[in-house]
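<instruction>
Derive structure tokens from the sequence
<entry> Chain with its tokenised backbone below:
===
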Amino acid sequence: MISSAMRARLAALGLIAPLVVFLAVFFIWPLVTMMMASVTDGTVRGLLPDTATALTEWDGTSPPTPQMQVALSSDLRRPADSLAFGDAVRRLNSELSGFRSLMSRTAREVRDLPEGETPDLAAIDPRWGEVRYWQAMKRTMPLYTDRNLLAAVDLERDTSGSIVPLDAGASANRQIMVRTFVIAATVTLLCAAIGLPYALIAASASGWVRAMLLIAVLLPLWTSLLVRTAAWFILLQNEGLINGALQAMGLTSGPLPLIFNRTGVVIAMTHVLLPFMVLPIYSGLLGIPANLVPAAASLGASPWRAFRHVLLPLAFPGLLSGSLLVFMVALGYYITPALVGGPNDQMISSIIAFFATGTANWGMAGALGLILLVVTTVLYLVYGRLSRSPTMVGT
């Protein structure tokens, strides 16, 4: 017989089981898959297993051995899926340009030879006599690699295995990543500058005034992100409502450049993410007794001093929560910079989408996503540390 305590425990586990399954399928599994894709590289090894074994015994500097050529010929004779062959060729070609034509021609020639005949690969294509092509193939054979993680920050390993910067112009991932952090930080600061006063006004108001202020904040959350971004696309045009109003009031003599640049991206993202700043601050302010500021004033504190030493320290946890939330969401923004920004305003999410859907390079997409995951995790740990600190700002 099952005891009542055991039945209660099983009932509790049954209640949370759907949540555990949901997290495992839709959060943990994709996360682990992304992390594994960033450090695994078995595309070429899976297509050329005999060549991988032969290359382990090669020193990497001497001329190609007959055993390596026999192993490669054997692998190319073996029937292979066209998709797997194409993926392996793309991986080799990314390591050293020229493999696309080299592998296609060699595979065709080798398969046309009689069974049992060992071809002379250098006779098929003189490039097989060059050490650099075999070196490139050897570099693609390890199952686990840091190539994608290094490439995500514009680094690579040279022939000796040392980490060196990529050639100038070969990649701009580091520049785009810095741009992403700058835009996210700018949007976070603007949201804090607007959200804190707004939350203070909403918390101090009452009745229908508070309701209208909250509806103004919540309304964007009830609208599709694409619709909001498209609305800013219209408003920021040279003939849009904003430029039209500025010129009608005589503040500008001509249209301001507000779209397809950094200004438009920051304006649109600030509007979209402002609710994520206002709501945490507002919820924190509701728990602050309303008589603290008047009490500080009765003790001789000026309004600024009362705000600085009484209200701001108590509102700081909400401000910190909102800043962390806005910054982490801004790091992964894709639609708004793609529609409103120019070529020099695209964020790292656009590069991840390019590698995932444009080139099917899931390793690079996973590596860039892993970097963003590490950054957001560090920020969350810092927030957890600060939120537990007894000495907040001004206390």
Q: What stands out?
A: The first strand starts at residue 155 and ends at 157. The first helix runs from residue 4 to 39. Residues 334 and 349 are 5 Å apart (CA to CA).
